[in-house]
Amino acid sequence: MCTKIKRYYYTQFYISYQPKLYELKETKKKNFSVTLTAIIVTGTIMATATVGSSLIFEATQIAEAQQMSGDITGPAGGNPFGGEKMGTITIDSTGRRTNVSADLNASPAEGNVFEGWLVDAGGSGYKLSLGQFRNGSLDFSQYMVNPYTYRNFEVTEEPAEDPDPIAAESIAGFELQGPFGR
Protein backbone atom coordinates (compact mmCIF):
# COMPACT_ATOMS: atom_id res chain seq x y z
CA MET A 1 0.00 0.00 0.00
CA CYS A 2 1.42 3.41 -0.89
CA THR A 3 -0.23 6.71 0.02
CA LYS A 4 1.15 10.00 -1.31
CA ILE A 5 1.06 12.85 1.20
CA LYS A 6 2.67 16.19 0.24
CA ARG A 7 5.38 14.40 -1.75
CA TYR A 8 6.22 12.32 1.33
CA TYR A 9 5.62 8.62 0.92
CA TYR A 10 4.40 6.17 3.52
CA THR A 11 4.69 2.52 2.65
CA GLN A 12 4.11 -0.71 4.59
CA PHE A 13 5.41 -4.14 3.65
CA TYR A 14 4.36 -7.24 5.54
CA ILE A 15 6.91 -10.03 5.36
CA SER A 16 6.28 -13.37 7.06
CA TYR A 17 9.13 -15.48 8.32
CA GLN A 18 9.56 -18.75 10.16
CA PRO A 19 11.46 -18.37 13.46
CA LYS A 20 12.53 -22.02 13.45
CA LEU A 21 14.85 -21.23 10.54
CA TYR A 22 16.94 -19.12 12.92
CA GLU A 23 19.03 -20.34 15.84
CA LEU A 24 17.69 -18.44 18.83
CA LYS A 25 19.35 -20.22 21.72
CA GLU A 26 18.61 -17.82 24.58
CA THR A 27 15.17 -16.68 23.42
CA LYS A 28 13.98 -19.80 21.62
CA LYS A 29 10.73 -20.09 23.60
CA LYS A 30 10.27 -16.41 24.52
CA ASN A 31 8.81 -13.50 22.64
CA PHE A 32 11.30 -10.81 21.73
CA SER A 33 11.44 -7.56 19.76
CA VAL A 34 13.99 -6.60 17.18
CA THR A 35 14.43 -3.05 15.89
CA LEU A 36 16.46 -2.55 12.74
CA THR A 37 17.40 0.81 11.28
CA ALA A 38 18.99 1.19 7.87
CA ILE A 39 19.43 4.12 5.54
CA ILE A 40 18.18 3.86 1.99
CA VAL A 41 19.19 6.52 -0.52
CA THR A 42 16.25 8.78 0.40
CA GLY A 43 14.69 7.22 3.47
CA THR A 44 14.85 5.18 6.60
CA ILE A 45 13.65 1.63 7.15
CA MET A 46 12.49 0.56 10.58
CA ALA A 47 11.36 -2.95 11.46
CA THR A 48 9.81 -4.42 14.60
CA ALA A 49 9.14 -8.12 15.02
CA THR A 50 7.83 -10.61 17.54
CA VAL A 51 8.68 -14.31 17.21
CA GLY A 52 5.96 -16.15 15.33
CA SER A 53 4.46 -12.99 13.82
CA SER A 54 5.19 -10.84 10.81
CA LEU A 55 7.81 -8.16 10.30
CA ILE A 56 6.40 -4.73 9.51
CA PHE A 57 8.65 -2.37 7.56
CA GLU A 58 7.93 1.33 7.30
CA ALA A 59 9.82 3.45 4.80
CA THR A 60 9.53 7.21 4.84
CA GLN A 61 11.25 9.70 2.62
CA ILE A 62 13.66 11.98 4.55
CA ALA A 63 13.19 15.19 2.61
CA GLU A 64 10.47 16.27 0.28
CA ALA A 65 11.47 17.07 -3.29
CA GLN A 66 13.07 20.49 -3.67
CA GLN A 67 12.96 22.87 -6.60
CA MET A 68 14.49 26.33 -6.56
CA SER A 69 15.24 28.98 -9.13
CA GLY A 70 17.16 32.19 -8.96
CA ASP A 71 19.75 34.53 -10.36
CA ILE A 72 23.38 33.62 -10.87
CA THR A 73 25.26 36.71 -9.72
CA GLY A 74 28.83 37.94 -9.72
CA PRO A 75 30.93 37.97 -6.54
CA ALA A 76 30.28 40.48 -3.73
CA GLY A 77 31.33 40.90 -0.11
CA GLY A 78 33.80 38.00 -0.21
CA ASN A 79 31.16 35.58 -1.55
CA PRO A 80 31.03 34.11 -5.07
CA PHE A 81 27.47 35.53 -5.38
CA GLY A 82 25.52 38.64 -4.43
CA GLY A 83 26.74 41.04 -7.13
CA GLU A 84 25.56 41.84 -10.64
CA LYS A 85 23.14 39.41 -12.33
CA MET A 86 24.92 37.16 -14.84
CA GLY A 87 22.29 34.49 -15.53
CA THR A 88 19.65 32.18 -14.09
CA ILE A 89 19.55 28.73 -12.51
CA THR A 90 16.96 26.08 -11.70
CA ILE A 91 17.77 23.17 -9.40
CA ASP A 92 15.38 20.27 -8.87
CA SER A 93 16.29 17.44 -6.50
CA THR A 94 14.31 14.55 -5.10
CA GLY A 95 17.18 13.72 -2.74
CA ARG A 96 18.25 11.07 -5.25
CA ARG A 97 18.16 12.54 -8.72
CA THR A 98 19.43 16.10 -9.06
CA ASN A 99 18.87 18.28 -12.13
CA VAL A 100 20.62 21.60 -12.66
CA SER A 101 19.84 23.95 -15.57
CA ALA A 102 21.80 27.19 -15.78
CA ASP A 103 22.07 29.96 -18.35
CA LEU A 104 24.69 32.73 -18.47
CA ASN A 105 24.38 36.07 -20.26
CA ALA A 106 28.17 36.45 -20.57
CA SER A 107 30.70 34.81 -22.87
CA PRO A 108 34.12 33.45 -21.81
CA ALA A 109 37.33 34.93 -23.16
CA GLU A 110 38.74 33.45 -26.39
CA GLY A 111 40.08 29.91 -25.74
CA ASN A 112 38.20 29.60 -22.42
CA VAL A 113 34.95 27.97 -21.26
CA PHE A 114 32.65 28.49 -18.30
CA GLU A 115 32.35 25.50 -15.95
CA GLY A 116 29.64 24.90 -13.33
CA TRP A 117 30.33 23.45 -9.87
CA LEU A 118 28.44 22.32 -6.78
CA VAL A 119 30.49 23.44 -3.78
CA ASP A 120 30.49 22.24 -0.18
CA ALA A 121 31.26 25.76 1.06
CA GLY A 122 31.78 26.01 4.81
CA GLY A 123 32.26 22.24 4.99
CA SER A 124 34.93 20.20 3.24
CA GLY A 125 35.34 22.79 0.48
CA TYR A 126 34.91 20.01 -2.10
CA LYS A 127 33.91 21.16 -5.59
CA LEU A 128 32.03 18.81 -7.91
CA SER A 129 32.29 19.74 -11.59
CA LEU A 130 28.96 19.68 -13.41
CA GLY A 131 30.67 20.25 -16.76
CA GLN A 132 31.09 23.14 -19.14
CA PHE A 133 28.50 25.59 -20.37
CA ARG A 134 27.78 25.12 -24.07
CA ASN A 135 26.32 28.07 -25.96
CA GLY A 136 25.65 29.78 -22.62
CA SER A 137 23.78 26.82 -21.05
CA LEU A 138 24.58 24.02 -18.64
CA ASP A 139 22.33 21.00 -18.16
CA PHE A 140 23.30 18.46 -15.51
CA SER A 141 21.38 15.42 -14.27
CA GLN A 142 22.71 12.74 -11.97
CA TYR A 143 21.66 10.28 -9.28
CA MET A 144 23.56 11.56 -6.26
CA VAL A 145 24.08 9.92 -2.87
CA ASN A 146 23.74 13.17 -0.92
CA PRO A 147 23.17 16.30 -2.99
CA TYR A 148 22.18 18.27 0.12
CA THR A 149 25.79 18.48 1.34
CA TYR A 150 26.44 21.23 -1.24
CA ARG A 151 25.83 24.85 -0.28
CA ASN A 152 26.67 26.81 -3.48
CA PHE A 153 26.49 26.59 -7.23
CA GLU A 154 29.54 28.39 -8.67
CA VAL A 155 30.85 29.25 -12.12
CA THR A 156 34.52 29.42 -13.10
CA GLU A 157 36.28 30.38 -16.31
CA GLU A 158 38.74 27.68 -17.38
CA PRO A 159 41.04 27.09 -20.38
CA ALA A 160 39.16 25.06 -23.03
CA GLU A 161 41.68 22.20 -22.83
CA ASP A 162 42.34 22.52 -19.08
CA PRO A 163 44.40 19.55 -17.76
CA ASP A 164 44.04 20.82 -14.16
CA PRO A 165 40.92 19.38 -12.45
CA ILE A 166 40.99 22.03 -9.71
CA ALA A 167 38.48 24.86 -10.05
CA ALA A 168 39.73 28.35 -10.92
CA GLU A 169 38.50 31.40 -8.96
CA SER A 170 34.69 31.67 -9.06
CA ILE A 171 33.33 34.44 -11.27
CA ALA A 172 29.66 33.94 -10.35
CA GLY A 173 27.45 31.88 -8.09
CA PHE A 174 24.15 31.08 -6.45
CA GLU A 175 23.60 30.23 -2.78
CA LEU A 176 21.50 27.07 -2.44
CA GLN A 177 18.66 27.14 0.10
CA GLY A 178 17.63 24.39 2.56
CA PRO A 179 17.68 21.44 2.64
CA PHE A 180 20.98 22.07 0.81
CA GLY A 181 23.97 23.07 2.89
CA ARG A 182 23.69 20.39 5.59
Please name the CATH architecture of the largest domain: Sandwich
Strand content: over 45%
Shape: globular
Count the beta strands.
Answer: 13
Helix content: under 10%
CATH topology of the largest domain: Immunoglobulin-like
- What's the structural domain tally? 2
Please give the CATH class of the largest domain: Mainly Beta
Strand order of the largest sheet: 1-2-5-4-3
> In angstroms, what separates the terminal alpha carbons?
32 Å
Q: Over all CA atoms, what is the radius of gyration?
A: 23 Å
Overall structural class, as computed from helix and strand content, comes to mainly beta
Order of helices and strands: EEEEEEEEEEEEE
Major sheet details = 5 strands, antiparallel
Q: What's the overall average pLDDT, rounded? A: 75
Tally of individual helices: 0
Any low-confidence stretches, pLDDT <50, length ≥5? 1-62
How would you describe this structure to a colleague?
There is one protein chain. The protein has 182 residues and is mainly β. It has 2 domains: 2-61, no CATH class; 66-175, Immunoglobulin-like, CATH 2.60.40. 0% of the residues lie in helices and 58% in strands. The chain contains no helices and 13 strands. It has strands at 2-5, 8-16, 33-39, 43-50, 54-61, 66-76, 79-93, 97-104, 112-119, 127-132, 137-143, 152-159, 170-175. The strands form 3 sheets. The chain has a 5-stranded antiparallel beta sheet, with no helix packed on it. The protein has a 4-stranded antiparallel beta sheet with strand order 6-7-8-11, with no helix packed on it. Strands 10-9-12-13 form a 4-stranded antiparallel beta sheet, with no helix packed on it. A hairpin with a 2-residue loop joins strand 1 (2-5) and strand 2.
